[in-house]
Amino acid sequence: MGWVAPGRAPVSASARGTTANYSKGTASGRGRSQPWRGALAAVALAGAALLLAAELSPLYTVVVGSLETPRRTVSAGSNHDYALAIVALAAVVMAAGALRGARAAAVALVVLGAAALAVALAIDLPATRQSGALRESLAYSEAHARAARGLALELAGGAALLAAGGLLLALGRAGPGRARGHGRGPRADVTIPR
Question: What is the pTM of this model?
Answer without folding.
Answer: 0.70
